[in-house]
């Protein structure tokens, strides 16, 4: 049975990785996990600071969400962006639904799904995204993978279908500090880098989660990314308070 599970896992990994090689959209954001807590309410702040050659962009996302059931959670976001001219403005609205498809530990791996709908501010530019969330534990380590398909439409948008792939391999050292390695694949972009995350519980119903990741674009090779010859680096921060 263990051999069959391992074989299925490797096939899934190869299949998703092969599709990800054809990804057509930058994917740096966060790696989602398929779990939902009953009666969960959360507020969230995300920051993405990305340098591409001599252009620096800053995107912030503020969210509020709550669970509709033990398996479904909905969250709304407002997205702001600072462009290359240092102008900061509202960029988009987004609503997101996460669905926990399996109970944790029920099968050889845990699965979930994610669906989002986003509209650009003051534009007829819409996008809908759906995807699979996967997580598998190996002793004190965890492998999480996301595969998304996104469709854009509207009079101010180019109608196209896009995909992106993300994975995170995490070592569960202590709840407050868990180092990881993350990978993102998207249009004309492949990035990899270290991440650190943690969880602090205050009582049974409230906890604070944090994540910090440093992602290096691999255009021109890993050595160029690490030595600074490739000017495509990103810093991502995610802070969630659940209560």
Which CATH first-tier class would you pick?
Answer: Mainly Beta
Order of helices and strands: HEEEEEEEEEEEHE
CATH homology superfamily: monomeric porin ompg
Whole-number mean pLDDT: 86
Instruction: Note the beta-strand portion.
Output: over 45%
Which segments are poorly predicted (pLDDT under 50) over 5 or more consecutive residues? Answer: 1-25
Q: How many structural units, i.e. domains?
A: 1
Q: Work out the helicity level.
A: 10-25%
Radius of gyration: 18 Å
Oligomeric form of this entry? single chain
Number of discrete helical segments: 2
Secondary-structure-derived class: mainly beta
* Terminus-to-terminus distance: 39 Å
What is the architecture at the second tier of CATH? Beta Barrel
CATH topology: Porin
Most strands sheet: 12 strands, antiparallel, barrel
Number of strands: 12
Defining key terms:
Porin; 10% helix; disordered N terminus; 243 residues
SSE layout and pairings?
Blueprint (H helix, E strand, L loop, with lengths): L1 H19 L20 E12 L2 E13 L4 E11 L5 E13 L9 E11 L5 E13 L2 E13 L6 E12 L6 E9 L2 E13 L5 E11 L4 H6 L4 E11 L1
Antiparallel strand pairs: 1-2, 1-12, 2-3, 3-4, 4-5, 5-6, 6-7, 7-8, 8-9, 9-10, 10-11, 11-12
Description:
The protein has one domain: Beta Barrel (Porin). 10% of the residues lie in helices and 58% in strands. β8 and β9 form a beta hairpin. By secondary structure, it is mainly beta. The protein starts with a helix and ends with a strand. A twelve-stranded antiparallel β-barrel has the order 1-2-3-4-5-6-7-8-9-10-11-12. The protein has two helices and twelve strands; from the N terminus they run αβββββββββββαβ.
